Structures are given as C-alpha cells and as structure tokens.
Amino acid sequence: MSEIDEPWAAQRDASWYARPDVRSQKVVHMAGEAIREGYASRCGRSVLDIDSTWIPEQVPVHLRCRSNGCREAFLNHPPA
C-alpha cells in the first residue's frame, strides 16, 4: 500500500450502508493510503468516496475533518 502522489480530499464512502444519510453535508477527509477497498482517510476513520473528491484548499473549514491525521494534512492546504 502506498501514499497517493497528488493531495485530494473526499467524503466517506457510505454506499455500503442500507440507508445512508444524504440530507446533510458530511465531513471531508484527506486521502491517505490505498487499501483494498479504495483509499483510507489520513485519520484512519473512513474509506473515501472517490466520486466526491475535493481540492483540499477548496474544502470549507467547517467541513474539514478535525481528527489528527486529517487535521495535520489540512494544515498544509489553507482555505482559498
């Protein structure tokens, strides 16, 4: 498993939930290692939905994941 080259962010993949909540905005995580299921978040809490990718600088501060790995990665990408 390796780190990805280009930094990107995405929401978690909820496609495997029976009834995912699609009514509200979700936290956006920074992409980390490639895993069998896709890509893990830098905080290790989620598998990411590659169909909901963001450019890190364009993620609003209130939507950024505040867990350790993601928070540290977002520090290198201040909001535009």
Q: Could you give a short account of the major beta sheet?
A: 4 strands, antiparallel
Distance N to C terminus: 31 Å
Helix content: 10-25%
Q: What is the general shape?
A: globular
Report on the structure:
With 80 residues, the protein is mainly β. The chain has one helix at residues 68-75; strands at 9-12, 28-35, 38-41, 48-54. The chain has a four-stranded antiparallel β-sheet with strand order 3-2-1-4. The longest helix is centred in the last third of the chain and has 8 residues, at 68-75. It is globular. The termini are far apart. The relative contact order is 0.26.
Could you outline the blueprint of secondary structure elements for this entry?
Blueprint lengths: L8 E4 L15 E8 L2 E4 L6 E7 L13 H8 L5
Antiparallel strand pairs: 1-2, 1-4, 2-3
Name some characteristics of this structure.
4 strands, single chain, 80 residues, mainly beta
Summarize the structure.
By secondary structure, this protein is mainly beta. The chain is 10% helix and 29% strand.
